[in-house]
Amino acid sequence: MIADVLADAGARMDRAVEAAKEDFATVRTGRANPQLFQKVLVDYYGTPTPLAQLASINNPEARTLIVTPYDKSALKAIEQAIRDIPNLGVNPTNDGNIVRVTMPELTEERRKEYVKLTRTKGEDAKVHVRGIRRKAKDDIDALKGEVGEDELSRGEKELDALTRAHVDAIDEALKRKEAELLEV
């Protein structure tokens, strides 16, 4: 029973770490990356639709992204959705067939802002992992009458080790992203 609780908590923590890494990928660094538009929703005929379902995104140059819509009628909506992305600071251009997004050079001040944003996202992910730990601990405590004290104690120690490993994984991903952001 304790093993089931730990397995469920581990799987949920793994998903939280992956979500944190995806979230870090949406913070821009010095070069253009199609993952920046991963969570962009376009108002397509009144329905919020992920950009990846409406267009292909190519990276022909280091600081340029080309967004080619599958449906040309969505061009204006795609352009507006990209313009509305917070913390990106880009002005997309539309030539009637594609949307060209040129990333401006990052200033030192902007890099530091992005590091702060990334740290906030990392802290949110760690809070989520700790929330998963808290629920798993409650589930283990609920088994008090069914299993012995030694098993409960061992289960809690394993849960703590699991939590520590996942928090360390988030910290490692955060450290890599910070190094990437501060690299000139």
UniProtKB/TrEMBL annotation:
Protein origin, superkingdom:
Bacteria
Whether Protein biosynthesis counts among this entry's keywords is yes
Tell me which UniProt keywords the record has, alphabetically. Cytoplasm, Protein biosynthesis
Q: Where is the Ribosome recycling factor domain?
A: 21-182
Q: Where in the cell is it found?
A: Cytoplasm
In Pfam terms, one family for this protein is RRF
Question: InterPro entries this protein is in?
Answer: Ribosome_recyc_fac (IPR002661), Ribosome_recyc_fac_dom (IPR023584), RRF_sf (IPR036191)
Concerning NCBIfam families, the annotation shows: frr
Indicate the family of this protein.
Belongs to the RRF family.
Query: PANTHER family under this entry?
Result: MITOCHONDRIAL RIBOSOME RECYCLING FACTOR PSEUDO 1, RIBOSOME RECYCLING FACTOR
Q: What does this protein do?
A: Responsible for the release of ribosomes from messenger RNA at the termination of protein biosynthesis. May increase the efficiency of translation by recycling ribosomes from one round of translation to another.
Query: Know the name of this protein?
Result: Ribosome-recycling factor
